Amino acid sequence: MDTSHTRSTTRRSFARLGAGAIAAGTVPGASLLGSGTANAQAADTAGGVVGSRTVSVRRVSTVAQAIVEQDIFLVRADGTPLAAPAADRIRVSDTEFKGSKIVTRVLSCEPVALPPRSRPGSVYLLIEQTRRLAQTDPRDQRLAAAKAFMATLPATTRFRIGGFSPVPTALRPTTPTTTLGSGFASASESALLIDRLAGDLSGDTLPLYDGVRGALRAMASAPTPDRAMVVLSNGAVSSGDMSISRARRDAMSAAIPTYHIGLATPGSGSDSCTLNDISVPTGGGFIQVSQAASLVPASVGMAKAILGQALVARVRLEVTVSNADNGDGSWSHFLRIDSPAGQVIVRFHGIFRPTAH
Fold first, then answer.
1. The overall pTM is greater than 0.90
2. Which of 129, 155, 168, 297 sits in a 20 to 30 Å window from 93, CA-based?
């Protein structure tokens, strides 16, 4: 959606609202797999977002208000989609930054049918292999999630597997990214390469952007023009020479949609803003979970969303920011959804930036 006509009617407006709410609308084909986490009562259930758009933006004095639509999906541990919740089953938290209060209200929630996206014929799966991430994922659920993602896509899809961390290992001699195998292969052949990554851990910092760049180079040999990258990582960048703007620009220039599955780690959490900024502009998206047990359903749900097989609910939100002249700041809100499988928390973390026009 082009929001230029809306921005032209206000001197200052939202440059970015939430996890890509307006940013997603300004990039053709951009989408958002939102920052979804499941609480302890529903650790085997995941929620994400497969679309985000701004319907309208208006401003009265220092108060800015936007109507935002977010397309969410919920899945059980076995990947079974959950139906759209009723609007009264969704609760939203409010937040503040720099003296500005942000109030979010659910206006409606309706089931929608989304067409399938361009189905990638070649996919690069880039998997974080740091010791820090293994603290949250001691049973290598991220590896199982990568296999589940591959198994959900059509059998004709071809894959390449890469692991990344700041320190080389015998299996991964090049840093930060080592691509395993000799070329793109079937899901069954690629699953054997994923198994080799079990226990192959090194380093405690995350060179995410450098890792993405290495994977993009390997994508040059993809056998089909319809390519995609899936990254399993916590997103909390703490090392490397690459900038987020360059990593994003490289992915956009290569026309490779990037999808991120984020897992929070002790002490550093997970950076949903980073995951959003490096994926949404490429036409991809992201989902974030707080427990390793949610990685598999999140991956299956993402794959089904790409294939147009997910049950999607369109949630319309009214987001009001008071004292909007206070400058830059981050904010987040939580959609707490009561589902048949328990309560699921879908979290959105983004940046509000008033911009003069």
1. no
2. 297
